[in-house]
Specification:
The protein is mainly alpha-helical. It has one helix and two strands.
Length: 103
């Protein structure tokens, strides 16, 4: 049975059968299912990337903490070395007159 897409008795009405309507609906449903499948695939990919980004963010945070710790250790080491250099200069200044007396 034909049905009118523009209303009964309209001039230039397009006649569509139930079979054509069913075919179009089935076609649209297949297209929609395909788009849904693509969307789900993309959503899964985004979730995987999100997990990777979160994991890498945690690694960066841990690495930053390690870098801060090493920087603080380096500062302590530099202070210790400066103190040792000062002591060496002091010892040298004390030993130099003694070495001159021995010569």
């Amino acid at each position: 049975l034909p049905i009118s897409t523009l209303g009964a008795g309209s001039a230039g009405a397009v006649k569509t059968t139930y079979k054509e309507l069913e075919d179009n609906l089935n076609k649209w449903q297949r297209e929609l299912n395909g788009q849904v499948a693509k969307f789900r695939d993309q959503a899964r990919a985004v979730n995987r990337w999100d997990e990777i980004l979160l994991s890498n963010g945690e690694k960066i945070t841990a690495l930053y903490a390690d870098v801060e710790k090493v920087a603080n250790q380096q500062k302590r080491l530099e202070r210790t070395l400066n103190m040792i250099q000062g002591q060496q200069r002091e010892i040298h200044s004390l030993l130099e007159p003694l070495e001159e007396k021995i010569k």
